[in-house]
Amino acid sequence: MNQTTTTLSESELELMNAYWRAANYLSVGQIYLMDNPLLKEPLSKEHIKPRLLGHWGTTPGLNFLYVHLNRIILNRDLDIVYIAGPGHGGPALVANVWMEGTYSEYYPDVSFDEAGMTRLFRQFSFPGGIPSHVAPETPGSIHEGGELGYALSHAYGAVFDNPDLVTACVIGDGEAETGPLATAWHSNKFLNPERDGAVLPILHLNGYKIANPTVLARISHDELEQLMTGYGYKPYFVEGDDPETMHRAMAETMDRCFDEIAEIQRRARVEGVTERPVWPMIVFRSPKGWTGPKVVDGKPAEGNWRSHQVPFSTVRDNPEHMELLETWLKSYRAEELFTPDGVLLPELQALAPKGKKRMGDIPYANGGLLLKELRMPDFRDYALDVPKPGAVEAEAPKPMARFLRDIMKMNDKTANFRVFGPDETASNRLGDLFEETDRTWMANTIPADDHLSPDGRVMEILSEHTCQGWLEGYLLTGRHGFFSCYEAFIHIIDSMFNQHAKWLKVTDSEIPWRRPIASLNYFLTSHVWRQDHNGFSHQDPGFIDHVVNKKSEVIRVYLPPDANTLLSVTDHCLRSRNYINVIVAGKQPAWQWLDMEAAVRHCTSGIGIWEWASNDAGGEPDVVMACAGDVPTLETLAAVKILHKLAPELKIRVVNIVDLMTLQPKEEHPHGLSDRDFDDLFTTDKPIIFAYHGYPWLIHRLTYRRTNHPNLHVRGYKEEGTTTTPFDMVVINDLDRFHLVADVANRVESLRPQAAYIKQYVRDRLIEHKEYITKYGEDMPEVRDWKWEE
Amino acid sequence: MNQTTTTLSESELELMNAYWRAANYLSVGQIYLMDNPLLKEPLSKEHIKPRLLGHWGTTPGLNFLYVHLNRIILNRDLDIVYIAGPGHGGPALVANVWMEGTYSEYYPDVSFDEAGMTRLFRQFSFPGGIPSHVAPETPGSIHEGGELGYALSHAYGAVFDNPDLVTACVIGDGEAETGPLATAWHSNKFLNPERDGAVLPILHLNGYKIANPTVLARISHDELEQLMTGYGYKPYFVEGDDPETMHRAMAETMDRCFDEIAEIQRRARVEGVTERPVWPMIVFRSPKGWTGPKVVDGKPAEGNWRSHQVPFSTVRDNPEHMELLETWLKSYRAEELFTPDGVLLPELQALAPKGKKRMGDIPYANGGLLLKELRMPDFRDYALDVPKPGAVEAEAPKPMARFLRDIMKMNDKTANFRVFGPDETASNRLGDLFEETDRTWMANTIPADDHLSPDGRVMEILSEHTCQGWLEGYLLTGRHGFFSCYEAFIHIIDSMFNQHAKWLKVTDSEIPWRRPIASLNYFLTSHVWRQDHNGFSHQDPGFIDHVVNKKSEVIRVYLPPDANTLLSVTDHCLRSRNYINVIVAGKQPAWQWLDMEAAVRHCTSGIGIWEWASNDAGGEPDVVMACAGDVPTLETLAAVKILHKLAPELKIRVVNIVDLMTLQPKEEHPHGLSDRDFDDLFTTDKPIIFAYHGYPWLIHRLTYRRTNHPNLHVRGYKEEGTTTTPFDMVVINDLDRFHLVADVANRVESLRPQAAYIKQYVRDRLIEHKEYITKYGEDMPEVRDWKWEE
Ligand SMILES: Cc1ncc(C[n+]2csc(CCOP(=O)(O)OP(=O)(O)O)c2C)c(N)n1
Ligand SMILES: Cc1ncc(C[n+]2csc(CCOP(=O)(O)OP(=O)(O)O)c2C)c(N)n1
Ligand SMILES: [Mg+2]
Ligand SMILES: [Mg+2]
């Protein structure tokens, strides 16, 4: 499979190899040196960093690929984004971006000369310097590559709707063992060569991960070839360790691959071929730590896992290691690569593309630069008619779906909006989207298929990881998106959320040249309270808890209680930038509370008294009944009605929370209420009965500094559940109307005389409930048919 | 590839098909009926459940496979565990387990007759009944299958060290799209046919998931075959929709597969062949909702995604649907399958294995039955010699590694202990394990390889999902295990943790016949404070927050501050049952505080005053300095030293917390301190400065009900980080000794007069620190060389 014919001239080859040597030199320098970058003096203690931090093993391979991609860009005038799956190879990307001149443009202090080279070396993994990974700080990066697994889904996400872009996606053979990566290969069934760009996966088979060989390096050539073919690719193998041979083979192979990509795109775009093509990919088998020391302390280093991190440390105090380092550095013959002033020789500079074609400067990798506003209709036009609170029943996501559908339509030309989900779009009541678009599908179809097409803009694959990775890649390259998911299973991407939140935190607060991108919007539905078909395994509202641990600057959590608030919140989220927005709302038919005007007011404040449900106007209440989430809101209102009947004199204030972050102190979150505002809403001394959608402790964590916190009593999901009726779910978690009534009776001093009666009433109703559902299998009529009546 | 020769006799075929019809009948009955199970009366409203909940689509396929596996068990006297990846097909497993008689033995109320059948139907997805999935309630289940993706890793985990077991693992073609499943195929590179059992993966290619076709059903036969071959399997295709043909093909194929499995095992066990074999697997392509209604309301149902859940509802009020249901049920001709008393005909009963061979009654699936105590040396023998606090520096995991090594040795014969990790065992300082065992490895090897062998008992693959899935399968079948992982990346399995915690909660509290299994033990290291090589993406201590949302009965969290406490905690965790234990401790050289005796005392209480670090003996302190976690403990002690110097009269109490759950109220967690004990430790009115390993809010969430909570001030990780020095990491999160000193100065009233001086001292040190590290790249000598001196 290796190509033997050559396309590289001798001089080209020599230059490319020199370029590679320079990148390798600069990489080793970053890991080891803090001074004397050109080795003008003999290497000595003061030149060596006291702490040697970084990863060498993957770096020469990444460098090797960079210069070959540069050649492709120059020869073909292409736009390429480089994704380094092994993001721990930070030195490689930084070196190359510096060599092409980009780095000094973004960071003028790190100039393109000896002084700059000193800084370049010193800053790497150094306090006050730059991280060891291909972090947001690295120009050209959209992929930090710290947590392994997402390189390929990011790569695909980046090229959807970017027909002129190719991502070259380097995948570590270790990373290839992760689940998210193993399924991301199937993304080719969702890539339309007519409308989308292309991904060139390069499996970096350097044989090892941290301390183990990799699985894919230790199966037969045949098996690996079949695996890649089975995934739908045409694999090309570039294998060896002799630089010259490898340069020739890689140049030849890249030419073939890019020829094939061009041909696939031509067939689709010019000839109108619509079948899924077989895309090329490269298996790049080369030694880990290539060109590094062959042996360290008597053990193999090059071509071994031992070169994964820093191949040898204790350089300062170990003369042998000092010599080893010097020999290693000198093996690159820097004097043939740089002027005495530390400038890369002009003939080498010529190997890098210019301007925006440089992979370090490509605008796609700073997506905010390309971001176009999403065209959006007025969400008020999709309002559900709610003549009065509790008069209409509806499935909240449906109006939102129509809103999304029309956003889809309005941005059809710009092609910068997609909806993602793990096979739940229809089930989550977003089916109206299919009036405007289809599901993306490039695999085989049959006539009975439902809304599948290569042009679809709804992306469904049963992999939350892939959905998340695609969406991140899509957003990071300057587009907009929306992710709907079962609430419980969004935990599958907890760690991916972490990484994206960290990326946003850094870009938002520390990297001015990174322009804001569209927010990542989650719509979590099929939530804990309505898992009628499923049960305990599908009941988990904890994603919110996970989210609020991240920087308050980048996270937002909304619990709209009905359709119009959901619409308003959705509109807000889609307009926002650099956030992660979490929206939680049910999909089942439910009572509607607010007309659009009230909904907008309520969502704009994020929290507020529902006057129509309260009877304490003009004075202080006896109790505050707070609620956040659709089901808790229903139960609270039903409890209020019962209390009105049982204790008509009781003054109740109903407070509904849409924006959970309002509960936090202002100093903790930009949406936080001031203490004064909080105290005015919740009083400073009255009992608060708080019905919350999720784990109750979260409310305490958000409010423990508030004046009235000692009187706050929260009900929520306490990890009880099974397949049962909707009302029984709230009952077994003590969140139902009856428990709430009892909570009030237990805490309001003025009810003391009646408390026993009230609690007996509650007990009786709960017994009735259990008996009824066990007999009839559905909720009691008084619950099923409950209605808010003025 | 389909077999045309037949091995089934006509009568066998007829009986098997009848058995299948019976299972299908009982499945439909469970979904739809609450009475009239044998249709002795014409179907009418009262017989139909008011809420129709469940999943039909996958069910006939699961039933089909069950009867074929029964045949294999009978013919070959095998032990087979059935794993239903599409666990939503609960009715199938329940039906079959009932038909083989197991169900009535476990649940005598659901007897093996008409009354039992009525209950069987009624209870399914019914309040007070059973869940819709293959839940812990289902005899024979070790896999609930609610959250898709883990079937195959569970299947492999179950057969490691169980040479006589085969798991038949049904994988939905939808589930096959998930990341965890896509990589779990590679588990065959870790399965040793000599010592382990076998897995027969059956890819259930019914073409659809919820509302979409599946990727694997819509690639060519060739691609699918190559994919499976590439994964290292020999795929057999059984494809079609004619029951007779399919029965013949399946019987033939299963015979082949089990022949091959037997032959592989024979070669390995008798002939000593050590190469990785190519294991068989089955691609079972059959219609979704097979034998269900072909058309519902004018739309295709059988063979379409529309039959995924309940193919049609509103039966009670829709005469057409009522008729459809009756026709459907009658198509199975129950009268030919059951006696008028609802007993399965004896000739059909004969098709099920007997006793413990029944898949519903197989002891492997109730692992606690088989659980053998882990033989363990006295952990005290591994104690680190700590002559006095702070006199010795050590890497805490190392003594633990030696302890684990010897546990490995002592249980070598019983072969019921393994250690799991994503390629980090050595890096996490557990390398001493390799003195006793190797890494499991069945793929190719080369001479330079390090401790790889088919007999290794350390399982490393770069997939946290696979490690977790293997371990769960291993534990659920009655063995012991230990999982070490980078702290940040354990979030990758957040959702898997959820599912296992839910499983344990249900088995522990609700299912007496499920015997306790060994706890799932996490050792989280390379933690947030010491990501020297990596940086921000590797910094996340939030797994603890995630864990504490689950039922307190099943979760435990430990933060041992040094080596001896880590040993003691590890011993405790390995002896425990039905828990998930989370242990967090660093791997870097660090000061040691407690000798073994003190460590045991401290760990047994879980929390305590460190007298040697306190100077308030005999009275009340001015301030309580609490700490949990190794790095916070170090900073607290260093702060105490500074305070002793700056304010010698200040009375400081140092409280260290190993067992985080002691902080919670007793009512919330079995380890929680009583309020009295808590108040005695933390006082009721003195400032508490709490230095915590993770996100500080968690401490508030655990303690908000405690008397002295208003005076509690917590420092922890506030999501600031990068690649920097160890001390700078605590500084940028305000957790360092200097900030702690300032916190004390800010809060202790008696220090008021000196506060300005103290705070200026702190400021100056912090400025010095920043200047020093930016210049020298490592921490100031006073920090690096800090030592606790009496
Ligand atoms: C999800 C995840 N688990 C574990 C790690 C720890 N880790 C860092 S690098 C590495 C090995 C990577 O091997 P490979 O992908 O082959 O990269 P390369 O050989 O090019 O360095 C591991 C396991 C990680 N970064 N991410
Ligand atoms: C991780 C995860 N994501 C989403 C779901 C929701 N869900 C339930 S069943 C299903 C389709 C399953 O399809 P398949 O595996 O083919 O099973 P079958 O066709 O046999 O029902 C989906 C997406 C889930 N259960 N788990
Ligand atoms: Mg590698
Ligand atoms: Mg399917």
Automatic annotation (TrEMBL), chains A, B:
Keywords: Lyase, Thiamine pyrophosphate. Its EC number is 4.1.2.-. Residues 587-788 form the Xylulose 5-phosphate/Fructose 6-phosphate phosphoketolase C-terminal domain. One of its GO terms (biological process) is carbohydrate metabolic process. InterPro entries: Phosphoketolase, THDP-binding, Transketo_C/PFOR_II, Xul5P/Fru6P_PKetolase, Xul5P/Fru6P_PKetolase_C, Xul5P/Fru6P_PKetolase_CS, Xul5P/Fru6P_PKetolase_N, Xul5P/Fru6P_PKetolase_ThDP_BS. One of its GO terms (molecular function) is aldehyde-lyase activity. It holds the Pfam family XFP. Residues 8-369 form the Xylulose 5-phosphate/Fructose 6-phosphate phosphoketolase N-terminal domain. Its cofactor is thiamine diphosphate. This is Probable phosphoketolase. It comes from Chlorobaculum limnaeum.
